[in-house]
Amino acid sequence: MEVGQMQRQWVDYTKSLFLEGFLDGQFLQLQQLQDESNPDFVVEVVYLFFEDSEKLLNDLTRALHSMLFWLATFECFMKVCCFWGFRFLCIFFPPSYRDQPSVDFKKVDAHVHQFKGSSSSIGASRVRNACIAFRNFCEEQNIEGCLGCLQQVKQEYYLVKNKLETLFRLEQQIVAAGGSIPMTELSF
């Protein structure tokens, strides 16, 4: 593929990331900080975001894991009781909501707040928006909402990660072919 064609592909792909809401103006501002003296600035910042995000997602999963295990155990117990018709056992031996592990919502919220900030700083708007919803559920101490938002945040994060990695590969191909990244063509 010729350089001009790759550059047009890069512009179209980048515009699609904005039009689909994956990125916002903060990403453009990040790109404007990059120059000849630091040509890998955006890639380095975004890969730091990836590293931090993986850690935060692991922390969030761990903070909510005991609740996930409890909910799965309770659901399985109820299915077994209903399947075998042992409703009387469910009355005498149900997993009690009193035995439900507690979630440190302040800790979860602190992780989500950090994730929201880092996603905002690189312009990952869909991740940021999912974090906003997540924080609302933390404030309400709504475990089901938190668990759902955890999945949504993970999904949005892995989507934007994949999209940005594709963008960076395309940039590498353009540079390897002797071209430059056509930043001036990114007007919206």
TrEMBL record:
What Pfam families would the database entry show? Hpt (PF01627)
Protein localization: Cytoplasm, Cytosol; Nucleus
In this protein, which residues make up the domain named HPt? 45-161
Q: Which UniProt keywords apply?
A: Cytokinin signaling pathway, Two-component regulatory system
The answer to whether UniProt assigns keyword Metal-binding to this entry is no
This protein's record includes keyword Mitochondrion: no
Q: Which GO terms describe its biological process?
A: cytokinin-activated signaling pathway; phosphorelay signal transduction system
Record Gene3D superfamilies: HPT domain
Indicate where this protein is primarily found: cytoplasm
A molecular function annotated in GO for this UniProt entry is: histidine phosphotransfer kinase activity
Q: Which GO CC annotations does the UniProt entry carry?
A: cytosol; nucleus
What function does the entry list? Functions as a two-component phosphorelay mediators between cytokinin sensor histidine kinases and response regulators (B-type ARRs). Plays an important role in propagating cytokinin signal transduction.
Annotated domain remarks: Histidine-containing phosphotransfer domain (HPt) contains an active histidine that mediates the phosphotransfer.
Name of this protein: Histidine-containing phosphotransfer protein
Species, as recorded: Ziziphus jujuba
Q: Which gene encodes it?
A: LOC107423312
